[in-house]
Amino acid sequence: MKTIVFLNNKGGVGKTASATSVAHIIAEKYKKRVLLIDLDPQMNTTSMFDKVDFMDLFLSIYTGEQRKSGKSVEDLLLDKKLDIHECIKKTAYENLDIIPSYITLSECEERLKADVTVPQQFRLRAHLQNVQNEYDYCIIDSSPSINIININGLVAADKVYIPLRCDGYSLLGVAMAMRLFDTVAEYNEHLQIGGMFFTQWNNRANVDKTSYELLNEFFGKYILPVKICVSKNIKECSYMQQPLLDYDKGKNKNKVTLQYIELAKIIIEG
Is the pTM above the cut of 0.85? Predict the structure, then answer.
């Protein structure tokens, strides 16, 4: 099983759109067995593939009472003895399973730090070893932060892919992601940078070209030959809770769908 993580310390750069689109494309078009893991307490990846009762979520937040049903990645990180299969859910799509997130994942970090019986950063990797032969790919969607939960994702991963927008804050997120990569690579010698790619790209905007030139100066060898353009389909499929390829069912695919198909091909071919 090859494990990849989408990472950027900046939010709104397309991590979730990339993780969900690539996971579904690899499962659907390439017929690979894919396990998708949501490490973000915002649950956007989870809501794309797992039925989420938003009224229950509202009441959970409002009353402070946990109302989740079933196991999530939080349970997996906190319980070293838990069978990972209890956390895996089938999706409506062939070859694609998910380990969902839950809003209380954001409170999980302090509990992880308090338990020193097992090194905190190796929790996820230890669990994934039990499904190594059941999937071809594990794709991890991270949260926009530097925390022990994202570090778990990096420790478990073989490759990191960094999506970014053409703005200063996104470039700062890349710098922080690279520093985090350097730190984790010291105890995960197999970890590699799979590549960086631009999202919400506008070829006519000067700021996009300037951002590209700046990134190319420092990380040119990592920039992938694919740019994800601005598209209303990304927002619409998120609203409809459908992965991009499923939402775009036309024979002539939308440009952004074709770009994510190209990204998935690059990831598979290495």
Answer: yes
